[in-house]
Write a structure and sequence with these properties.
The structure is a single chain. 33% of the residues are buried. Helix 1 packs across helix 4, helix 3 crosses helix 4 and helix 13 crosses helix 14. This protein has two domains: 115 residues, no CATH class; 254 residues, Rossmann fold. It starts with 17 loop residues before the first helix and ends in a 5-residue tail after the last strand. The chain is built from 14 helices and twelve strands. Strand 1 and strand 2 form a beta hairpin. With 420 residues, the protein is α/β, with parallel strands linked by helices.
Length: 420
């Protein structure tokens, strides 16, 4: 029985009703002592009925008679519901995403026991490892879903799946598994309390137009430069508060956010000429964008909006020179990109380059000019913020270059679904 301590001479009162307290006691007895072996799965109709009865999850006076079990499951598994189906008392159970256990369908008792464990006895060993994600997500984000608890490597850490849910909801492009593993390692460091930063490098607020095309609703025209929240920066503004909410819900509210404005683009005379401003005015518009982005963030969100090269101008110049030298000899960072890969990326960027330079542009030459800036930006941000997760909100094909020039795979994620 779960009891509340009371004053001397006063009979202690139960925190829950007697029926609820009895159920909790049954659950704890059923699950066993913390540190013990997990219960085996409950298979078959007879075993399921017996387990539900033992746990007090059957009410023969209600419809359906397993209603207590359904209510317990609904509290732990989003999207779970039930209704009367067909004739008689048949029950139809629905899930937004039906959970599986290593590809198999869990029994009602399996789900009930796991739900009770996570809510009333989280210290007990996990009964089953439930997969709540579609097979492609399980495959592409497996390192995060398989993340283990620091205090018990036998158990999955559910906070890995929590981050996966947040990332799926944001609409990330699924990176190579070695990058996902780097994200997992970063998340583990965050949960251990290490200082950490999410960094984003965003383009200036170049002029755009609405296209009417649902696949590319907004396109850059490059007819001018504004001082507001640009197209790429607006995607960051939509994503970062959601990540902040996820972090705080998992005891990681110490994570900082940095949105760096790409002022390096003001260093290129052709860029200034194209948008019709001098370098000084270009930088002034970027400072206005800094203020606009910071003002649009939720109150209390720990975000800084520096100009990229002002983080460390000398380091930027040095890193950019190194990156240009590396690209000249066809070195593109730790993912080992080939010339074929670069050709594919150049073709993906051609539409953008044509709007900037005209229809006869050499897309590969322009890409080779841009890549060093991406490589240097990734290295500079990690140099200034050592435990950083980099989030890209521009074009996904450029994601490999955010890795920088090192030999270690870095945690880099990109939002998908942007064509401009």
């Amino acid at each position: 029985m779960v009891m509340l301590s009371g004053d001397a001479g006063v009979t202690p009162k139960t925190l829950f009703s007697r029926a609820t307290s009895d159920r909790l006691d049954r659950v704890r007895r059923y699950l066993g002592e913390p540190g013990g072996a997990p219960k085996p799965r409950i298979r078959g109709r007879a075993s399921t009925k017996a387990a539900l009865a033992e746990l007090g999850l059957v009410d023969r006076t209600a419809w359906p008679r397993n209603r207590p079990a359904y209510e317990v499951i609904a509290r732990s598994f989003p999207g779970f519901d039930w209704r009367r189906g067909g004739q008689g008392d048949r029950v139809w159970v629905t899930f937004t995403e039906y959970p599986t256990v290593e590809g198999e369908t869990p029994s009602l008792a399996d789900l009930s026991v796991e739900s009770l464990r996570t809510t009333v006895a989280p210290e007990a060993p996990s009964h089953i490892q439930v997969d709540l994600f579609a097979p492609n997500i399980q495959q592409r984000l497996r390192p995060l879903l398989d993340m283990r608890r620091a205090d018990d490597a036998r158990q999955r850490d559910p906070r890995g799946a929590t981050l996966v849910r947040a990332l799926v909801d944001l609409g990330i492009a699924y990176p190579p598994l070695q990058v996902v593993d780097a994200v997992r390692a970063w998340w583990e460091r965050v949960l251990a309390g290490e200082p950490a930063t999410v960094v984003v490098a965003v383009c200036p607020d170049y002029s755009t137009r609405e296209t009417g095309d649902p696949e590319r609703p907004v396109a850059y025209t490059f007819d001018g430069l504004n001082g507001g929240i640009g197209h790429v920066a607006r995607r960051a503004l939509g994503a970062l508060p959601k990540l902040w909410e996820c972090f705080r819900a998992n005891g990681a509210g110490h994570v900082q956010f940095v949105v760096a404005m790409a002022d390096c683009e003001a260093d290129v005379a052709e860029n200034c000429r194209r948008v019709g401003v001098r370098r000084e005015e270009f930088l002034q518009r970027l400072r206005e964008s800094q203020q606009a982005f910071a003002a649009a963030c939720p109150p209390g969100m720990p975000v800084a909006t520096p100009l990229l090269t002002e983080l460390d101008r000398a380091a930027w110049d040095d890193l950019l020179a190194q990156a240009r030298a590396a690209v000249a000899v066809r070195k593109y960072g730790p993912l080992g990109l080939t010339e074929d890969d670069l050709g594919i990326i150049a073709r993906a960027r051609r539409s953008l380059y044509e709007r900037w330079y005209g229809g006869t542009v050499d897309a590969r030459a322009v890409l080779d000019g841009q890549v060093p800036e991406y490589l240097a930006a990734g290295d500079l941000l990690r140099q200034c913020f050592p435990n950083a997760l980099m989030l890209g909100t521009d074009a996904v094909p450029m994601a490999p270059f955010a890795q920088g020039l090192g030999t270690t795979i870095q945690p880099v994620l990109y939002l998908r679904g942007v064509e401009y």
